[in-house]
Amino acid sequence: MAQSPSMPDMASLRSHGRTNSDVQVLVKRFEHLDVRDRDAESEARRKKQEMELRRAQLGREEAESELKKWREECRRIAEDLKESRHRESKVSNRLEKIMVCCIC
């Protein structure tokens, strides 16, 4: 029977026996690949966590800035209210004096 060019010669495969040390070398290479994969994964995970931390820090800074603006706005409104009440009190006193004068 003719040998197909795409099929390997089975006789040569059978005659090529692997020794125990060949297998051990392959296992060590595989383990080394696994360690490098894990190292690459942990590096990628570390970079992702650093990016998430930076985004959280930027978000916090932005929130603190907004909080500062709102506190300033509240302080300004409180001062405006205090000033308005003071003016109202003055107008009320003047009106009362004018009414007393007109009644007399």
Q: Could you explain how this protein is built, in words?
A:
The protein is mainly alpha-helical and 104 residues long. It has one domain (19-103). The protein is 87% helix and 0% strand. It is built from two helices and no strands. The longest helix is centred in the middle third of the chain and has 84 residues, at 20-103. It is rod-shaped, with a radius of gyration of 43 Å.
Q: What topology emerges from the helices and strands here?
A:
Layout: H1 10-15, H2 20-103
Task: Summarize this entry quickly.
Helices cover 87% and strands 0% of the residues. It is mainly α and 104 residues long.
- Radius of gyration, rounded? 43 Å
Specify the number of helices. 2
The total domain count is: 1
The sequence of SSEs as H and E is: HH
Beta strands, count: 0
List low-pLDDT spans: none
* Structure class: mainly alpha
Helix content: over 70%
User: What is the mean predicted local confidence, pLDDT?
Assistant: 82
Coarse shape: rod-shaped
Distance between the termini: 138 Å
Largest sheet: none
Strand content: under 5%
Keywords:
single chain; 104 residues; 0% strand; rod-shaped
